[in-house]
Each structure stands twice: as C-alpha cells, then as structure tokens.
Amino acid sequence: MTEMDAPVSGADVVVIGAGATGLSTGWWLAQSGVNVVVIDSGLVGWGASGRNGGGCSHHFSPLFVEEQRLWPQMDELLGYPTEFCPKRVRLAFDERQLELYGAAVRNAAHQGFSSTLLDAKQAQELVPLAGDGVVGGYFYDFGGHANPHRTVQAYAWAMQDHGGRVLQETKVTGFRQQGGRIAAVITDHGAIDCDQVVLAAGPSTQRLAAMVGVSVPMVPARAEMLVTEPLPLMPIGGVDGNGLYGRQTLRGNLAYGGGPHEWLEDEAVSTTPSSTPLMSYMAGRLAQLFPRAAHARIIRSWAGVIENTPDGRPVIDRPAEPGNLTVATLSSIGFGLSPATGRAIAQIVTEGRCDFADLSSFSLARFADLEPDWAHIQGWREAAQA
Amino acid sequence: MSFRPDPKSIAGTNLPVAERAEVLVIGGGPAGMAAAMQAASEGRSVILVDENPIGLETMAENLPLHFGSGMTGAVRNRNAMLEAVAGAMPALEDCLAAGVDVRLGTACWGIYAPGPDIGWLAGPVAGLMDGARSWMIGAERIVVAAGQRDMGLAFPGWEKDGVMGILAAERLAVFYGALQPRRLVVLGTGTETLQSALALQAAGATILAVVEVGQAPLGAPAMLTALAAKGTRLISGHAPKQAEGGAAVEALVLRPVDDDGHGQGGADIRIACDGVLLGVGQVPVVELLDAAGCRMVFDPARGGIVPELDARQGTSKPGIYAAGNCAGIWPAKTLDTAIARGEGQRAASALPGAAGEHSPPDGQVGEDRLAWVRATVLDAGDSLHVCQCEEVTAREILELRPPRYLGVDQLADGLPQSNRRDLRSLLGDHPHPDQVKRLTRAGMGPCQGRRCREQVAALLALASDLPYGAIRPASHRAPVRPMPLRLAALTNVETDAMARHWDTWFGMPAQYVPFWSVPARYTAATRSGDTEGASE
Ligand SMILES: Cc1cc2nc3c(=O)[nH]c(=O)nc-3n(C[C@H](O)[C@H](O)[C@H](O)COP(=O)(O)OP(=O)(O)OC[C@H]3O[C@@H](n4cnc5c(N)ncnc54)[C@H](O)[C@@H]3O)c2cc1C
C-alpha cells in the first residue's frame, strides 16, 4: 500500500474512488472539518477522470448553475492550477448540426445564460483553425474546459491541505455490515472503520453496491480520444463541432474525441483500456473541423472506460439500507460537474440533503419499473439478463 | 425479442483492411528476416515492413532514433538511400527469393488486437504508413522485431548537433553511409556499445575515447583491446560535464566521479571531437507491444522493460509475438545473431515443437542507468532539459513543477503553493512516471519520451531511494510515430452507416433532457428513439 499520509484505521467518512467525483467530495468534506479518507485501487485519477475531454458545460443538469459558479473560482479555492478556461464555441457543418446544437442555447437561456448564433464568417473569425465548410455555429457565454490531470491532483492536494487523506493502490474488496449500516470498508490492506461511506467507484460502482444489496443499473463502455502536437493558441480553446468534442490545451495541443463507443462486459473494467483504430476516423473529422490544422501530427491516442446508467443520467442517492451509504455515479459526464457534485455529496453526507439543487432526477427510485433486460432492449448487451 | 445493437456503438462495424497476410513481420533486422523466411518456408503468405530508409524530416526530429542532426545531406536522396539500405540488409535477397513481400520505407504506427476491452476487432490488425499513405493490414500473426534504441542522457550541451545515440550513429554509418561526425567520444562500455563502436571504427570513424562512469569498463576486454589498437582511450570513473561548441559540438568535457557516484569538482578532461555518442544503455523498442496492451515486465536480464513472453515468443495478446532485441537484450545475443534469428523462427513458426528456451545471464541494467543519471543529470542544475521536447528540467521533475506555460511564478497571490509539492506528496514512496508526466509534461512531446523515459525513471528511483526496477513502466500510446491528421484520416473512411449515426457522445436522448423535464420513472421500453438529437 502506498500512502500519501499516515496509515489509517478509521475515518468519519470513507470515500471509495479517487476520481473527480470522490476527490471533490473528499475536498469539500475536509474543508468543513470532516475526517475523510479517499481510497483508490489505482492512483489519483487513474480511471475516466484522468482520460477525459475536460469539458465543463452541462446545461441540462440540475448542477449546471453551480458548475458555472464554481469553475471560475476553482484555482483559487483549491490553491493549485486546474487550467480552467471559460466559454465555448460549437461549429456546425450542415444545417442539421446547426439545429441540433441549438438545444444548448435553449437550456442555458432557461437558466439565465446567453449564447450567440454565429454565421459562417463570424465562426471562422472566432476560430482561426477553422476553414471553409463551416455553415455557422454558436458562441456560448458559459461553460469552458479544464485540464483533467491537473484538476484531479489539485483536488487531492487541496484535500490534504485540509487534513483529508488519500490511500492509493488500495482496493476495496467488501464491507462489514452491522445493524443495517456499513461498519467498516474492507480493503486488500485491512479494514477501515467508518460512520459514513460514499461509493464513487465509476464503472465498479454497480459491483460494489451489489455487495450491500443495492442495485445500481449500469453498463461500462470504452470511449477514445487523440491528441496532436501543439499549435498556436486560439482565443477560445473549447471548440466543439462536426460530431467531436474536445479542447485546445493551454500548451496548444488539440485533444479531441467523439464518434462510436463500445459497450463492454464487466470483466473489461479492471484492465487499462487500449485504444483502437477509431483514431483514424476521429482524425478525419478533426481535419474537417480544423482544416488549418490538418498538417498537425497526432502524437497519442487513448481510451477510457466509463459507466452509463439506463437513461445516461447520474445517480446521487442514499438508499434506505444500508443507512450510511451515499452512491454516486456520474454516468459518463462527470468531470465538468465535479466541483458541484462534490459539494452536493458532501452536504448529503453531513446534512442528509443538498440545499442548492434539486437532485430528484438523480434518484435510484426512477428505475423502480426498469425491465431486468433493459440493457438488451437498449442494444447495449446481447445477453438478455443484465 | 431480437437483438438490435445500439446503432451509435461500434458493434457490428467491420474494420476494413486494405490488405491481409497470414504473417506480418515488423522490422527487417536479423530476427525479422528470420521470422519472415520461416513463415514463407512453411508456405504462408508473409509481408515484412521496415521503416528504413527514414526520411530526413523524421530523422531531424530524432525519430525513431536519437540522430542528433548527425546525418549528412546524402539522406536527402531517397533513391540512393533505398539502395544503400537494401544493400545493407544481407538477408534481403533470400527473403525476396523465398516469396516474402518486403516493404521498405514503411512504418508500423500501431498494433491492435481483440481482448476484453476491445470487442469489435475480429483479429490482430496493424496500421502502416509510408510518406503518402496510411492503411490497415490484417494478419493472423504479427511478429514484432522492432529492435533497440539508445537511452538518453542529459548533460549541459546534449542538445547540440553531434550529440546522438550510438545506435543512431551506427545506423547512419553502416546502413546509410551518411554519418557526419568523424571524431567521436563514446559514453558507455557495455558489450552492445563496444560492438557498435567497433562497427563505427570499421566504417572509418575515429573513436577517440570510450568513457565509463564506473571504476571499470563493463564489456569484454578483447573488444576494448581491439578499439585501443586503433588509438581509442579508455576513461573510467568519469561522467560528462559539458558538451562545448556552438550549434554543433566541438569538445566534450569530462569530470571525475566521487565515491558516492556524483560528478565532482576535480581535474576535468577535455576532448576535442565532433560527435558524442550516447551508449549508456540500449533499450528494447517495446512501444508497439505496450501500446497494443501486451503485458510488460522489468527484467534486468533482458535489458529493462520487455514483454512477458512464452516459450514461443508469444506475448500476452493472442496473435502478437516478439523477437530479437525488442524481446530482450543481453551480451550473448548482441554478439551472435543466431539467438535473435532463432527467436524470429520460433515466433513465426506454426509448426509444433518450435518452442525454445534461452537463459539470458543476470544483468544489472538498473544500477548502470542509475549510475549515469546520478553522475550527470542529478547534479547538472536548473538549465538542463531532461525532456527536450517539452523542455522540462530535472529539478522541475523532482519538484513536480507545473509547466512554465502556466506562468505559475507570476500568478496572483494565494496561487499555487505548487512548490510545496514534491514527489513524495504524489504517491508517498512510490512515484509513477505517468503521474509525473501528467503533471510536468516530461515525456509528453512528439518524440514520445524516447530520449527521456529511462532518465525520468532513474530520477524517480534516486529521489525515492528505490531500485530502478521498482519504478513502473511509463505507458506508450499509438500512433508510435507522429502522424499528420490528414494522413491518419486516409487510413479508414467513414461508411454511410457510420456517418449517419455518428454522434459527439453516446447519443442517448434521455441523457440530455433538461432536468426540469425528466419523467419520474424510466423504462427501456418507453425511452425516446435513439435516432434523433445530438449529444451535448
Ligand atoms: C474519453 C472520455 C472523454 C470524456 N469527456 C468528458 C468531458 O469532456 N466532460 C465531462 O464532464 N466528462 C467527460 N467524460 C466523463 C468523465 O471522465 C467521467 O464521468 C468522470 O471522470 C467520472 O468520475 P468519477 O470520479 O465518478 O469516476 P472515475 O474517474 O471512474 O473514478 C472511479 C475510481 O474508483 C476507483 N475504484 C474502482 N473500484 C474500486 C475498488 N474496488 N476499490 C477502490 N477503488 C476503486 C477507480 O480506480 C477509479 O479511480 C469523459 C470520459 C471519457 C472516457
């Protein structure tokens, strides 16, 4: 076991999973003086949280407003740089894309955020790497992107600055239950007594929750990205479109993903995922999105495994039993929301409820009528039983 | 109900391959040639690719070897280079005669094989490229015989023209007849290095000195004697202090190493030269294998990080095999190519009974690498870039400083205390090079860490008082050669079905319903169709 601090035998709150969700939760808890330890079988951000697109613009989520409020302050709140850059642009290459991308405008307006419709010329002016072929786009006066690597490490360090602890390379293997509660979290390096447990283990959340009798339906999937060598910085780095999402990093690299995913069997969750030849399809789309970058060379590609619930929406909920467990899966879109998610979960743990957002759409109760063979019906898994 | 796969997923898509072979061999050295010959003799179709001759632009970027601008203008002449390379491959004629389809100037940029995390591929495939095209090839068996490269070693001036890997120099001199520097100082005295030095000497270069950081040379005395016969000096107990000169190296200054292994003040030795050859360690080229997901181990007897192999040279990925130096480097193998050829034959053969056993001697590759880095990189101060692509210094690595483009030192009050953070804050006593890469960018540039990987591992080991082998391998990713977007885009063309269903993310409408409109209950049967709407 490798520890960042002293060995742990007990903690008020044990958080399982040192991804963006678990670490942000740990950081918010530690700030309010709670004795917290975050455990991960790998290293900080070794799952999807260290392999994603860094986008922070989730206008359909009940945590959107808080996401937007917090990101511009995160460097200061954490005390370490996240490379957050505000605003986003989305370019369309045909009228249908332009229409589809309008949903963001309506959702954001509903919550008091503005956007601007761009014609082809304005779009090209705003995005120097774009070329002909753009029919228009949107400038979103909200959202943005951050560097996932730096952000997850910032959470971990900031949490430690407030007395929280991280146990890396420590795998949770089970739970000791007593009187309808989890009394201890069992790891491959011993048991940790606890008052409260937060389960934020990404694609492993389903398996771990099942050990204490809680059903969290989900199926893991692989998604891939590529990154180019650095290019001159565009005024706005968060440029999506043409079926791709991504960002220009502050170093200048283009880091992009999009296109087909692959649903996986549960066994695949434990392996470090390999990328596949999907890279070349993404390269074609990216060269079209940024014709002036078509010469830029790809220097890496990678894959991440993420979980999706049946409706693709997060679960943040406290099951009736065990009475001291909070379950959190962000269902494939949890990096950008993490500052807000962590705050919400920390409140749920310490006060029983979140006081700044309505999280009823994240409850497990919505799956009460879910078919046992839902994954088959949705075409995610051929086997009829999930 | 019949199963209808999620149309936005890759399920049901067949990866088109431009061509197929029963056996694909990557690399035209002794192991690769022997593999190709073996498969051909068993009546199977074989394609062998080798990226030589390498184009000037690629060489100028120190890919795939650390060429250090040591090539003459002759490499511009593609046809002459093709001829030179073909002439330098002794087994080429036999291979062609046996019916092997040999492609020179063709690089493999990625290997992919099905596994628990990849279901949509039917079998092993590889991505190939030449100057103008990129395409996929399918094969039942892929034999990787990608050879070896030099370990980098930073010291002031190591970015100057003429400071280069000794394998790069040997490649230029022997394969291309295009090595520019003529008066050379060699760092390192292992068997591999001395063998290269002798080859360079035979090709007409002057080896002024061979330098060993330890108190005694490592390789066979007979090899040193052979070098000395033509005037080569042996200098033990010294490490490079500085390469002097303008853009190009004009002299190498050495300083003595103290009992603790640090470079110290003392009487310097200055040698005028126009080339400094890094021979401090030879590294198996495992990038394709690692990126494909083959399990890796640190095996000092096989020269460092190498693929886990069975008795038939099979990796942990079915269908992918490794042979020759990329499967392990040790002195007997370096001195006698029969061992590499045997590996190639075993790796390619489908016949029963081809399994073989070899026992590489104990090696101490870790200690040797630590010794060089301790004596040069550790004490070299602040201005020295260990990672040349991203310009990261040893101190920045050890202190986990955020990259300079963040301008952290100039940030407003209260911002980052990052310098309070060092390696220990990252992972206690067990730092991982991938974490260090994520935070400092060391190894994140276009050369993909070829020149800094082993140095970063050694720095982490020294800083955390661990043996070299305890530092876990940094990952490799495809494409293992930098590849222009427009070239990569030629590999595969979107089918109509793919274009129709292409979506930014998973394409599940329910995921993006604004929260104020979400129904209280969700069922799969009543979900809205998955054909309309775009992911946000
Ligand atoms: C390619 C890609 C692009 C993406 N792009 C974006 C984007 O642009 N914007 C966005 O917001 N989101 C994006 N996402 C999604 C986002 O990355 C994830 O939703 C988010 O990181 C989830 O964070 P998490 O902490 O909930 O889970 P994870 O990051 O998966 O963390 C879970 C952790 O739990 C640990 N764990 C599992 N089992 C155990 C056990 N038994 N014991 C101990 N520890 C365990 C794992 O090691 C892991 O570190 C993307 C994802 C991918 C893969």
Automatic annotation (TrEMBL), chain B:
Residue spans crossing the bilayer: none
Keywords from the UniProt entry: Oxidoreductase
Domain FAD/NAD(P)-binding, chain residue ranges per copy: 22-332
Pfam family, one: Pyr_redox_2
Any one Gene Ontology molecular-function term assigned to this protein's record: oxidoreductase activity
Region (Disordered), start-end ranges: 344-365
Protein name stated in the entry: FAD-dependent oxidoreductase
PANTHER family: ANAEROBIC GLYCEROL-3-PHOSPHATE DEHYDROGENASE SUBUNIT B
